[in-house]
Amino acid sequence: MEKILLYLIIFLAVFLILNRYLRWWAKSAFVVFYTIVIYYFQKGYTKLNNDYEAYRSENGYNHNDAADVAMQENFWDMQTEHVAAYQGFLLIPALSLLIYSYYKWLQKAPSRTRRILIGTSIIPVSILYLFISLQVAMLGYQP
Questions:
Q1: Among residues 11, 48, 51, 68, which one has the fewest Cβ atoms lying within 10 Å of its Cβ?
Q2: Average of per-residue pLDDT values in the chain
């Protein structure tokens, strides 16, 4: 499994465990949804990489050969399309969970000091979410 997917799983698991405002069935729905999406994403991503490595092990790679260059460009295009197809499924539900959680936390905060602390915690969580989003997008990067 790509390490960034593991980080995404840990990030979401912490939020689901700490979230008191989601009911058990909503948490279960998130778990089932992400299990299915990550399984199919990883299955397709691994297949693409295995096919590419099989081609390279059979034929080698010569940067002067037009067929090898075309195969590599085709692989990069397919990998980019695959990541782009799953990127919204991986990131948008996580963003909606974060927005909902922070809305509820701010709404239910008993004191102004707590609201300020919760509001301040949005910054590192947003930076972490942005980092994970960029890393997921980089899975489909082509040089």
A1: 51
A2: 87
Nearest Cα neighbor of 14 from 23, 33, 27 is 27
What is this structure's pTM? 0.80
- 85-143 confidence digits (pLDDT tens): 999 998 999 899 889 989 999 999 899 999 999 999 999 999 989 988 888 888 877 66
